[in-house]
Amino acid sequence: MKATGIVRQVDKMGRVVIPMELRKKFDIIDDQDSFEIFVEDDKIILKKYQPGCLFCGETENTVTMKGHVVCKECSKKLSELARDDF
What is the SS3 assignment for 39? Predict the structure, then answer.
């Protein structure tokens, strides 16, 4: 884990502001992006949320269809299954 040297205080509502420099670096869009929260030992880890494939969880090479994310590989498998059924 790499230290940034940035320290932020938690406000009365439990919020922490992510500095603009980090939001720009990680392409975080205000009022649009979400975060996943992980816990590891004594650490709280925030990760920019990226929805994964409905079937395998893959986050690369995905498309969204009717609100569902599917990766290229699973899409191929679905096409093959559909072809076999007809």
Answer: strand
Q: Helix, strand or coil for residue 14?
A: coil
Contact yes or no for 45/62 (Cβ under 8 A): no
Q: What angle do CA 85, 64, 45 make, to 5 degrees?
A: 125
pLDDT, tens digit, 9 for 90 and up, residues 37-62: 999 999 999 999 988 999 999 999 99
Token pair 């500095």 in the structure block, residue: 19
Phi, psi torsion values for 43, nearest 5 degrees: -110, 145
Nearest to 17 by CA among 46, 57, 55: 46
Q: Tell me the C-alpha to C-alpha distance, in Å, between residue 70 and each of 11, 45, 65, 84.
A: 39, 26, 8, 20
User: For residue 80, how many C-alpha atoms fall within 13 Å in the half-sphere facing its CB?
Assistant: 6
The tokens for 19 are 């500095």
